Amino acid sequence: MSVVNTVAPIATTVLASGTSPSTAYDNSVPWAQIPALVLPALGDTFVMVGIVMAIVVLVGVPLGALVHNLGPAGLVPNAPVHTVLSAVISIGRSLPFLILMASIVPFTRFVTGTNIGIAAAVVPMSIAGIAFFTRIVENSLRSVPSDRVRVATASGASRLQIVRTAQLSEALPGLIGGLTINTIAMIEYSAIAGTIGAGGIGYVAVTYGYQRFDHTVMIVTIVLLVATVAAVQQLGDLAVRATSPEPVRRRRWWRRRATDLPPVAAAV
Questions:
Q1: Is the separation of the CB atoms in 244 and 195 below 8 Å?
Q2: For residues 129 and 181, what is the distance between their CA atoms, to the nearest angstrom?
Q3: Contacts of 141 (CB under 8 A, 6+ apart)
Q4: What is the CATH number of domain 4-19+31-259?
Q5: For the chain, which has fewer Cβ within 10 Å, the N-terminal or C-terminal residue?
Q6: CB within 8 A of 169, min separation 6: which ones?
Q7: Which residues are CB-neighbours of 58 under 8 A, at least 6 positions away?
């Protein structure tokens, strides 16, 4: 159940406690009711960010590879198309999210049929996330040594094979690191999207923490956001270390060395 649908029942419970409407408005939500308010909001945030990041990866990876390979050091240099694409991406990256969200309300309503709720928040979040991640993909591919591409070209690989094996696979640690940063940014954007009734932690923070001056709910939402961001960052760091070439080579070297040592030395 969406967190928006939990607001009315909780407010009704507070009013039914025997206090006046003005007093109920000023009082904090009881601790016993905070989990029922906050946990659905956290679920809405995960759904929102999950949908957005799926769209960002599906669009941002090929778009970033296209922008890179249309550049001067790419496989198919094309200055006019590269300039236009870079300009469009730069516009999407330069607008603050709140301004972007407000400026594309007609487009959001055209796509989703509404300008409130999770569906309406996914549109501006996806646009901002795609522009951000496209730049990350482009910069990650730019850092791939050119000799890897030359070797793949000399071996007769097609352009698609070169992009997949010699570029994206070599840039995988950087892509995962960028994806982690982008996910954290989308969590922050989902909180901002709460101002348009998108649900999630941002909606609870605005409705209860800000409009009702409920410091308890505000602190709980802040703690949840910090914990969520820290968990995402930790998982991203682990994934980067697991896919980095140097740690992988080091682990393989130690495995080979352990198998080559005599039984006594290996045991030591």
A1: no
A2: 10
A3: 64, 65, 68, 69, 167, 168, 171
A4: 1.10.3720.10
A5: C
A6: none
A7: none
Please state the rounded mean pLDDT for residues 248-256. 50
CA nearest neighbour of 231 among 38, 55, 49, 51? 49
- Say which amino acid occupies 158: S
The CA distance from 251 to 261, in Å, is 16
Does residue 253 have a pLDDT over 70?
Answer: no
DSSP string over 131-183: HHHHHHHHHHHHTS-HHHHHHHHHTT--HHHIIIIIIITTTHHHHHHHHHHHH
Q: Which two tokens stand for residue 23?
A: 């007093």
Q: Is 52 helix (H, G, I), strand (E, B) or coil?
A: helix
Which residue, chain included where needed, has tokens 């960010």? 49
Query: Is 10 within 8 Å of 36 (Cβ atoms)?
Result: yes
Q: pLDDT tier at 176 (50, 70, 90 boundaries)?
A: very high
Q: How far is CA 237 from CA 135, 167, 183, in A?
A: 20, 21, 13
Q: List CB contacts of 32: < 8 A, sequence separation 6 or more.
A: none
Of 177, 146, 181, the C-alpha closest to 75 is 146
Structure-block tokens of residue 196: 């348009």
Residue percentage of the chain with pLDDT more than 70: 81
For residue 167, which of 32, 73, 57 has the smallest C-alpha distance?
A: 73
Using one digit for the tens of pLDDT, what is the confidence trace for 1-59?
A: 555 555 444 444 443 444 444 444 445 777 777 777 788 888 888 999 999 999 999 99
* Ranges 10-14, 74-78, 234-238: which has the least confidence: 10-14
Q: Where are the domains of the chain?
A: 4-19+31-259
Structure tokens at 39: 């946990």
Helix, strand or coil for residue 259? helix
